[in-house]
Amino acid sequence: MTYELLKNNDITTQICDVLGVPFNDITNDEALAIIKQFDMLNTHDNLYIVTANPEIAYMAHKNESYMTRISMADLIVPDGIGIIKASKQLGRPMKARVPGIELMEGMLEIANRDHKKVFLLGSSKKTVKKCKKKLSIQFPNITFKSKHGYKEIDDQKTLQKLKDFEPDYVFVAMGFPKQESFIYFNQHHFKHTVFMGVGGSFDVFSGNVRRAPELFIKLNLEWLYRIMTDFKRFKRATTIPMFMFEVRKQMFNEKYDPYKHLKEKE
User: Fold this and answer.
1) What InterPro entries would the database entry show (predicted)?
2) Is the torsion defined by CA of 68, 13, 11, 139 positive or negative?
């Protein structure tokens, strides 16, 4: 599916292996071009997108089941400056980071243009209701529906609500690894639907959390702003040194086997 979409949009992309995660080396605009093309296709296939930061890459590297679940995505985009720096260290520099919140906003603009249906799944009841209300004003041509909570992957009531709505887009804000697991195990119930895990994006769109000021974004320091404004994130930030250590190990291994990052032929 992704190969055909890339070909149709004249987008050339390399697969960049960072800790075993097969990132697509594309920009935000290129990812949106693929989504626009997908919207126009007459297909029952879905489009599953993962926006992976260093925490997600590190967890996938350490957890084989999670690696399987994200590797099945049609697109894996680099959400975080840590991924971009790692790709440079590995000698396979990617074009640019693709912040998940910016990609989601671009997808909502496409959905608004084409009068699509969008389901917002996850986060707290108050947050998702507030998010839905604000997005409905910002994107008046979209039909929104929402369901709060960090649901179990096999929650049949939630799944039925989703199926009855027949969404064009499903944004899942349950945090990793649950959001990717929910998509992986349930997307086969749907036809021609775009799925993406969006972490804490509902908090930003609802206005509960401010996105980093422009200066922090330009300097690729959003992660620092988040820690400064939410000290609960400090514990999560300790994953970064472990991620970089594993990247160093990958560099060392590839130095003595320069083709190790390429998949073996079956």
Assistant:
1) WecG_TagA_CpsF
2) positive
d(CA 147, CA 125): 8
Interhelix angle 100-113/28-40, nearest 10 degrees: 30
Burial of 83 from C-beta contacts in 10 A (0-12 / 13-18 / 19+): buried
* Backbone φ/ψ region at 27: left (φ over 0), alpha (ψ -120 to 50), beta: beta
Token pair of 59, please?
């967890």
Spatial distance between the Cα atoms of 21 and 53, rounded to a whole number of angstroms = 11
Q: What is the pTM of this model?
A: 0.86
Tell me how far apart the alpha carbons of residues 165 and 87 are, in angstroms, rounded to a whole number: 40
Question: Which CA distances in Å does 204 have to 48, 138, 158, 173, 259?
Answer: 22, 14, 24, 12, 41
Between CA 259 and CA 163 the distance in angstroms is 44
In which order are the strands placed within the sheet that holds 169-173? 75-78, 47-52, 194-197, 169-173, 117-122, 143-147
Range with the lowest mean pLDDT among 10-14, 24-28, 92-96, 169-173?
10-14
pLDDT tens-digit series, residues 70-119: 999 999 999 988 999 999 999 999 999 999 999 999 999 999 999 999 99
- 259 close to 92: Cβ distance less than 8 angstroms: no
Beta strands in the chain (DSSP E): 15-18, 21-24, 47-52, 75-78, 117-122, 143-147, 169-173, 194-197
Number of other CB atoms surrounding residue 2 within 10 Å: 18
Residue 216 burial (CB count, 10 A): 16
Among residues 54, 53, 47, the alpha carbon closest in space to that of 31 is found at 47
